[in-house]
Amino acid sequence: MHVLYQLDYYERMLRNNSTTSEQISYIRWEFLIANITDPIRVLLDFGSGVGWFRAHRPLSIEVDSFDIGSYPQTGILHKEYDVVCLWDVLEHIANFELIHSILNSTRYVALTIPIKPRKTSLACWKHYKPGEHLHYFTLDELDTFFETYGFRLLKRGKPECPPREDVWSLLYEKENGKADSAKSSVSG
């Protein structure tokens, strides 16, 4: 079973989570700005949901937003991005081929993802959501996943905990230091 992310889902997320959305967005921006020394000019928020992250952006940064839902978004407007963000997204993607070209279009990838504590059983874990969370990664598995796309880990931690629980933030950089635009086929 695959959860469909329709407008009612986003409306529910907006109502239920708006009190912490601003706080989490600022934590995410701080995580990026503190750990990326290059200027961030253009960023893609892939899986942007209701658009909280874009709404709280520094005005000097252009943010494209894309989601499978019908909520307002800019779409993928650029062929290359300084940063691609996958905030609470990777665990929901059924086929990673969908993000292959996007990963080739950037130098940095930032993400948040729930990571199960070692002593917690999967079935009892807060983030165990069959049909919604399609993948459960360990930190080592995430490093290996991004290494296959040519990225190396720059930073990881849990700056969103609290208010969240068991959610890690990770930042990866392309090994060669730049987007692989020759392989990229991102279109708008």
Task: Please tell me about this protein's structure.
The protein is an alpha/beta fold and 188 residues long. The protein has one domain (7-174): 3-Layer(aba) Sandwich (Rossmann fold), CATH 3.40.50.150. It has helices spanning 7-35, 52-55, 97-103, 139-147, and strands at 42-46, 62-66, 81-87, 106-114, 151-157, 167-174. The chain has a six-stranded mixed beta sheet, with helices on both faces. Strand 3, helix 3 (97-103) and strand 4 (106-114) form a beta-alpha-beta unit. The protein is globular. The two termini are 29 Å apart. Mean pLDDT is 86; it is low at 182-188.
Layout of SSEs?
Blueprint: H1 7-35, E1 42-46, H2 52-55, E2 62-66, E3 81-87, H3 97-103, E4 106-114, H4 139-147, E5 151-157, E6 167-174
Parallel strand pairs: 1-2, 1-3, 3-4
Antiparallel strand pairs: 4-6, 5-6
Question: Quick recap of the structure?
Answer:
The chain has 188 residues and is an alpha/beta fold.
Protein structure class: alpha/beta
In CATH's first tier, which class applies? Answer: Alpha Beta
Along the chain, the helix and strand elements come as HEHEEHEHEE
Q: What about the largest sheet? A: 6 strands, mixed
What is the number of helices?
4
Taking all residues together, what is the mean pLDDT? 86
Indicate the proportion of strand residues.
Answer: 15-25%
- Which segments are poorly predicted (pLDDT under 50) over 5 or more consecutive residues? 182-188
Radius of gyration: 16 Å
CATH homology group:
Vaccinia Virus protein VP39
CATH architecture: 3-Layer(aba) Sandwich
Distance between the termini: 29 Å
What is the topology, as strand order, of the major beta sheet? Answer: 2-1-3-4-6-5
How many domains in all? 1
Helix content, binned percent: 25-40%
